[in-house]
Amino acid sequence: MIPDFQATMRPLLLHLNDGEPHPIREAIAAVCSYFNLTPEEQQEMLPSQRQPTIHNRVYWAKTYLLKAGLLQSPARGSVRITDEGRKALASQEPINVAYLNRYPAFVRFHTGKGSGQTLAAPSPDTEQDPETILAEAGKKLDAALADDLMELLLKMNAYDFEKLVVDLLGRMGYNPDAEDRNSFVTRKSGDEGIDGIIKVDKLGFDAIGIQAKLWATDQTVGRPEIQRFAGALGGAGLKNGVFVTTARFSRQACEYRHPNTKIILIDGRLLTELMIRHNLGVQLKNLYEIKRPDLDYFESF
């Protein structure tokens, strides 16, 4: 399990206890070793996919310890323990935000006093690093947005829903001509066959059959519907299909496998998630960029 940023403070100080400067990358590796993190845990990325989670947490631990004076940065990209850092280790007390609050310089940094800002002060025992807080807030906002999108989807008619599915596949890169909705060959809705066919490449060497079911969210698409769709794909000479619904799939539907046809299932939850991820039917309200020093730039001098 990946530790939170407060839990990495003591192991970080322990690694630096020899008093010598150490590169932060080496310190991160030492913290990973301390917690016996697996290669998969070490490579787990933040939701933004911009940095491994453990790197981010050690980075914030380093920042907090620097602000409190338990660490210093003698050179770019390196850190060294201070006398206060050694005292913290010797005290055997938990080293966390509550401990750092005894240092006035850290309190000024943590509360924003003196910067013209007033920052909320969560409980030191439960505090997360700032990027984790932003990520959790982002999850809540996306959940609320997904509910709003589903409400709008359920107000559409079946034909418009089919066009929306085409637009989504285009945003996902499955159809070079996604803006030309005529590439989607519509058939009668509700015939339990194929609602349409979308080209994967401009020359039409491959194609995907689509089934789009605008059902209530409390309904369930069962295995028989998937079997009928597989049969329709085979009858049309197609080997690939996408079954999209605003409802959910039964366990039997999810487990169904056809020997000659690959079918991807997209339920209501995944549908709204993909719409948000690929910016379909949503608008950008605010964009907050997280920046940190570019050590490679400064090392170029």
Explain how this protein is built.
This protein has 301 residues and is α/β, with parallel strands linked by helices. 44% of the residues lie in helices and 11% in strands. It is built from 13 helices and 9 strands. It has helices at residues 9-15, 24-34, 39-43, 53-68, 83-91, 97-100, 104-111, 130-153, 158-171, 223-235, 251-255, 268-277, 295-299; strands at 22-23, 71-72, 78-81, 196-199, 207-213, 220-221, 240-245, 248-249, 262-266. The strands form 3 sheets. A 4-stranded mixed beta sheet has the order 4-5-7-9. Strands 1-3-2 form a 3-stranded antiparallel beta sheet. A hairpin with a 7-residue loop joins strand 4 (196-199) and strand 5. Helix 2 (24-34) packs across helix 4 (53-68). It is elongated, with a radius of gyration of 27 Å. The two termini are 39 Å apart. The model is unreliable at 114-123 (pLDDT under 50).
Looking at this protein, list some descriptive labels.
301 residues; alpha/beta; 44% helix; 13 helices; three-stranded antiparallel sheet; elongated; four-stranded mixed sheet
